[in-house]
Design goal:
17% strand, 11 strands, single chain, Deoxyhypusine Synthase, alpha/beta
C-alpha cells in the first residue's frame, strides 16, 4: 500500500497548468492523478535526448483547435514521427483554405444537409469548404507531383508535398519544415485518398508506395535508442505505433488518452498495460492510460509540459 496521503488542493495553488497537475498528483482523485502521471512520463520522455518520440491520433481532432496544439508540438521539436489517418490530410488542407464553424451535437441533421453542411460532432463543416475544395486543391497538387516526374510516392512524402503548399500554420506544413514523417497507413480512407484514386484512373503508373512507409518505420524503430509514444484515441494509428515498436522490444514510455472502454476487447479501449503482454511496451517501461476527451486534456498536458521544460 502506498504511504502517500490524500491531500486537499487549494484554489490559490492552481496558478499554472504545471501547478494544476502537481496538485492532481496529491489529491488522490481518479483520472486526475492518471493525468499527472501522463504529464510526468511525457515530460521525462521529451526531455530525454535519446528518445525517438511517436505521436498517433485520429483525424477528427484536426477539425478542432487541437490542430494548433499539434502544430506547436512539432514546431517545438517534441515529435519525431506522426502516424495518423487520411482525414488529417483532409482537415489540414480544408482548414488552410476554408473555414469550419462551432456548432452543436443536437442540431437537426436533416436541416443541415439542406444547408450543405456536414456535422462532425459539434463542428460544422460547409460542403464547399470540404469535398469540392479538397478535390480542387489535390488535383493541382497531384498534377504538379506528376509533372515533376514522380510516379511513386510514400504517404510521408505526399504529406510533405501537401505540407509545403499549406504553409507553417498547418500540421503538415510544420512537418515539412522540420522533415517530420507523417505516415498514413490507410491512405484511401478519406477525401484526399479518393482524389488519389481518381487521379490514378488517368495516370495508371502513379501509385502510393506503402512499403516505403514501412521501411522508414523499420529504420526508425531499429535505430532508436529509446522510444516514446503519445497515443490519442485508437484504431489503425494506435496499433501501427504499437505494432512496429514490438520489433525493438517495446516502447520505453507510452501515454494513451482515450474515451473507449476495454471490455469489448477493442484495441481503442485497451489499457496500455495490455500491450506489455504483446511485447509492444517494455515490461520495465513507463505507461499510463487516461480516460477522457482529448480536446479537454491535451491542452492541459501540453501547457504543463511546456512550463516544466522551460520551452
Amino acid at each position: 500500500m502506498s504511504e502517500k496521503p490524500v491531500k486537499d488542493i487549494k484554489i490559490d495553488d492552481l496558478s499554472t497548468m504545471k501547478n494544476l497537475l502537481e496538485n492532481y498528483d496529491i489529491m488522490g482523485g481518479f483520472m486526475a492523478r492518471e493525468l499527472y502521471l501522463a504529464y510526468e512520463i511525457l515530460a521525462e520522455a521529451i526531455a530525454d535526448t535519446e528518445v525517438t518520440f511517436f505521436m498517433s491520433f485520429p483525424a477528427d481532432i484536426v477539425a478542432t483547435g487541437l490542430r494548433g496544439i499539434i502544430r506547436d508540438m512539432i514546431r517545438l521539436g517534441w515529435i519525431d514521427i506522426i502516424v495518423t489517418t487520411c482525414g488529417t490530410w483532409d482537415h489540414d488542407l480544408a482548414r488552410t483554405y476554408g473555414k469550419y464553424y462551432i456548432g452543436t451535437f443536437y442540431e437537426d441533421d436533416r436541416k443541415l444537409v439542406d444547408r450543405d453542411i456536414h456535422r462532425l460532432g459539434n463542428i460544422f463543416v460547409p460542403r464547399k469548404d470540404y469535398g469540392v475544395l479538397i478535390e480542387e486543391k489535390m488535383s493541382i497538387i497531384l498534377n504538379e507531383i506528376w509533372e515533376n516526374g514522380v510516379s511513386e510516392i510514400s504517404t510521408y512524402e505526399l504529406s510533405w508535398e501537401i505540407g509545403k503548399r499549406l504553409g507553417e500554420e498547418s500540421i503538415l506544413g510544420q512537418a515539412y519544415l522540420r522533415k517530420i514523417p507523417v505516415i498514413i497507413p490507410g491512405p484511401y480512407d478519406g477525401a484526399v485518398g479518393s482524389q488519389i484514386w481518381i487521379f490514378q484512373q488517368t495516370h495508371k503508373d502513379f501509385y502510393i508506395n506503402l512499403n516505403r512507409d514501412e521501411s522508414l518505420l523499420s529504420d526508425i524503430v531499429f535505430e532508436a535508442k529509446k522510444t516514446a509514444a503519445l497515443i490519442i484515441g485508437g484504431g489503425i494509428s494506435k496499433h501501427h505505433v504499437l505494432w512496429w515498436n514490438q520489433f525493438r522490444g517495446g516502447l520505453d514510455y507510452a501515454v494513451q488518452i482515450t474515451t473507449a472502454i476495454e471490455f469489448d476487447g477493442s484495441l481503442s479501449g485497451a489499457r496500455l498495460s495490455e500491450a506489455v503482454s504483446w511485447g509492444k511496451i517494455k515490461k520495465e517501461g513507463k505507461d499510463v492510460s487516461v480516460w477522457g476527451e482529448a480536446t479537454i486534456l491535451l491542452p492541459i498536458l501540453v501547457r504543463a509540459i511546456y512550463e516544466a521544460l522551460g520551452s
